[in-house]
Amino acid sequence: MPNPHQAFDALPATPSRDTRAALIAACGVERRDPVRRAILLHPTDFVLREGDRAVITGPSGSGKSVFLRTLALLDPVDAGRILWRGEPIARARVPTYRRQVAYIAQRPAMLDGSVEDNLRYPFSLKVYRDLRFDRATVARLAAAASRGDDFLDKRASELSGGEAQIAALIRVLQLAPDVLLLDEPTASLDPDSAREIEALVGAWAAEAPARARIWISHDPAQARRVGNRQLTMVAGTLSEALSHEGTP
Question: Taking the mean position of all CA atoms in its chain, how far away is CA 224?
């Protein structure tokens, strides 16, 4: 019988005839609890290609966030490796990788000051010093989430949960990453705020069709709206639904 913990061994993440460039590839990636040594993520193979809109659903505690943080290089792997555009990621290149592959947490961290102060913050970091803050760009992104120019002047401490997530997303999207890793960005938001987040991410994707994302969601309806690849995580094992043609 096949090993259920190696679901991807017999099921490539995308068909072999797919000629789109691979952005992120996980090759036999495994994660364990450092204290209990329990397996958090069973050996996993996964490929995210240009234009992919992958959605991962599954029970709480099943390893979805573990997998996403692993792809973001926020936590070390215990086995396997992560490739970026077919190449291993050297330690010195990790900041550059994170510039291209952006991780969005469920509860964003906001700095004191205004929304604009928060949006300007990345440009003070060494990795982004070749870029400049562009108010027109962030205003356009804010408009995609149904927010006017006055949104940039609001105090971060006065933002609702949905507004804070919009501001956090704009802070990342203005930097034009190639990939978004979205860790349940709308889990604690009302339906209207969730739709605004979806619209904002959609506006980012529409600017460059090759951009790709992985979105963790507990909402089946949202998963259908935002994804063209449907994956499930159960007890640390990732599997992908087949299309009616028998391919992912």
Answer: 17
In the chain, beta strands by DSSP E? 22-32, 39-49, 53-57, 79-84, 87-88, 101-104, 179-183, 212-216, 229-234, 237-240
pLDDT of residue 4: 36
Rounded to whole angstroms, the Cα distance separating 64 from 234 reads 9
Answer left, alpha or beta for residue 7, where phi above 0 means left and psi between -120 and 50 means alpha.
alpha
What span, in angstroms and rounded, lies between the C-alpha atoms of 97 and 82? 11
The neighbour count for residue 70, using CB atoms within 10 Å, is: 24
Structural domains in the chain, CATH included, are: 4-110+179-240 (3.40.50.300)
46-68 pLDDT tens trace = 999 999 999 999 999 999 999 99
